[in-house]
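The following record pairs a protein chain with its ligand, S-adenosylmethionine.
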Amino acid sequence: MSTFSVIGTPIGNLEDITLRALKVLAASDLILCEDTRMTKRLLDRHAISVPTKSYHMHSTISRVEEIIALLKEGKNISLVSDAGTPGISDPGSELVRRIREDMKEEISSGILKIESIPGPSALTSALSIAGIPCADFTFLGFLPHKKGRETLFKEIAASERTMVFYESPHRIIKTLESLVEHLQGQTSAKKVTVCRELTKIFEEVVAGSPAEVKTYFDTHTDKVRGEFVVIVS
Ligand code: SAM
């Protein structure tokens, strides 16, 4: 019997990890990490000493085959990303797909269990403090840099739904400019909420019209750093 555990880890504050996640990580034969050095900080903080290996966007097919072979030997393997929930704009879903496909029989006979150890995600953290009705929303991940970008802004402008996406400090101003351009003058005024540095010392939520939020970041250039979730509602 082996278990493949997909584990949510902190998005900033290293204490944001569940008791179950710590227990499962400590009992793993191997922890697959997006960046082993990054995960080591978390493991050291919680005195967990388990072998780690990298699994990231550029991992080869042979790495996937190696992981499947270990599961077939009965090893318990955990998967984490640098921050938050694996598979959410992070590596993980392709590996899980391959394991589900290649180990169908082991899964159906109960020899392999793929389990979720839920934890933080910037997506749910942002929505939870934005004060926006979000029984129903669309998550766009990272916006494309070129192809399809304009079309997506048009879709955001036309949508009745709350739209959520991730943004980097290098592109946040450009993105706010595009939101001003596409959303201003609309009859149904849209609100932009930017959640920055969630769970960290400088956690901040800035909300207003697209122009108000852009002016805030234009005039507070020291805030154009860190990690961002943008919500258009
Ligand atoms: N898998 C992660 C999750 O579940 O949230 C997301 C990984 S994605 C590669 C990284 C992006 O998530 C960042 O560029 C930022 O947009 C968002 N993010 C991650 N941590 C954040 C934080 N502490 N505050 C705000 N946004 C964050």
